[in-house]
Amino acid sequence: MILIMQVTFYLVFGIMWHFHLCFSAVFYVERMRQHCWRCSNVTFHCSEHSMCLLWVQTIREQLALLTNRPKNLLVYINPYGGKQRGKQIYDHKVAPIFSRASVSTDVIVTERANHARDHLKTEADLKKYDGVVCVGGDGMFSEMMHGLVSRTQREAGVDENSMEETLMPCGLRIGIIPAGSTDCICYATVGSNDPVTSALHIVVGDSQPMDVCSVHNEDSFLRYSVSLLGYGFYGDVLTDSERKRWMGPARYDISGVKTFLSHRYYEGTVSFLPAEGDSGTPRDKMQCRSGCSICLQTSSDQLVSKNEDSCGDTWTVIRGKFLAINAASMSCACPRSPKGLSPSAHLADGTTDLILVRKCSRLNFLCHLLRHTNKEDQFDHSFVEVYRVKQFRFTPRYQECDSEVDLRESGATGKRFLSQICREHRACGCMPSQSNWNCDGEILPHTAIQVLVHSQLIKLFARGIEEQPVFEDPYAQCAI
Ligand SMILES: CCCCCCCCCCCCC/C=C/[C@@H](O)[C@H](COP(=O)(O)O)NC(=O)CCCCCCCCCCCCCCC
Ligand SMILES: Nc1ncnc2c1ncn2[C@@H]1O[C@H](COP(=O)(O)OP(=O)(O)O)[C@@H](O)[C@H]1O
Ligand SMILES: [Ca+2]
Prior knowledge:
The protein is an alpha+beta fold. It has 12 helices and 18 strands.
């Protein structure tokens, strides 16, 4: 039994006074099916008033010793995320749990996109809080994470544009109350997209470190990513789905089918620095679970050697035609794909799993996609490669044209000659088209990018997915 709340103590006079009874109700967390948690309570009755008071005092003292539990939270609600139920979800399911746990809150309902990011970045008095919470989807989480990470770097005097600098980890934990369309970050860190479960993980003060990728274009920082960085298929799905926002979460399925049928492929070069040491491989079966030993090992390694110099490492270079290039810094499990894009990716190991899906037939690609929804291995195809990396770059073919010119032909004649070839390719229609990068659900403004994983840069109010208990109560239900 995990005690979560301030004990509610009623000295009953009035309606029940003639029973001369005192009782105290202790609220606790109960584990249900599919990683869902529920709030239960047990009531202790006692005929002696002084004994009851002693119980209450002792339990309060014990609770006060649990210093990792948040007391003050700053909450941002996106009223337009997912099915537009963020406000109701917070008011009806989350606020009562916070109040029972004596957690005080300042609540901001956002009025525009990037409201939460800007407020966190510049205005919010963060000293007042033990954590920040977002009610919304992956986009809302990303907004808050950007605000918090950027502010932390500014205050520490770290330049986000430089890939050489070590970023400063954020002090405040982030809680996610899922109320979005994909809710992958919540699902992959808790095991469900249930708002009550997330609220309970917050009040018990869970802590889960998480890797963050910084995405750069040449010398400028573009964005951070914690889940999926996808070029080709997932970039195209996102670009198409933005025009269908009014459809809610179903937009991704409609755009998914449309993008699948269009079957576009993209040419370019991917280079990466493989992860070293005991980091495992994306095809092992060492799934990241609560208390994951690989992630724990990463934390202790970091204590030993902060910011390892990667100058001596060798880059692997792969050139080709790809249907999709995906980097999954975590499993990316979500209700559409319960095991995720990379089932064995780790939340906090300082690496990302780079998945290259080469040009193949529609049938083969469908087979690969379908395997995201069943138990079969989606990497077991000749046209799919997967690598665990700590850094990677991508240059699309049409930009390689320009860089080849610059590299090989410094003279003006050569440049003119190669530019002409590129133009001719465009005219005959065989010029490879370009996609966009989907960066945790946002479209990036550049296609040539450099990506660096920052190990354990942020912390969530979560504990990773818990192993399923051997015996489950078959009647236990998640929904209330
Ligand atoms: C045939 C069925 C194939 C199902 C394949 C499902 C794979 C799903 C992997 C999802 C990875 C999700 C990574 C997270 C991304 C989010 O950050 C991001 C933003 O989320 P937010 O809106 O909540 O803020 N979400 C997304 O970019 C959405 C990705 C969703 C992609 C759904 C794709 C559906 C594909 C359907 C293909 C169907 C082919 C059928 C042919 C007859
Ligand atoms: N008040 C608001 N009005 C319009 N857009 C908002 C508002 N608050 C947040 N947003 C933006 O809405 C986008 C989607 O939010 P999100 O909560 O992730 O929902 P979904 O999962 O449905 O995409 C995010 O990019 C976020 O920046
Ligand atoms: Ca990782």
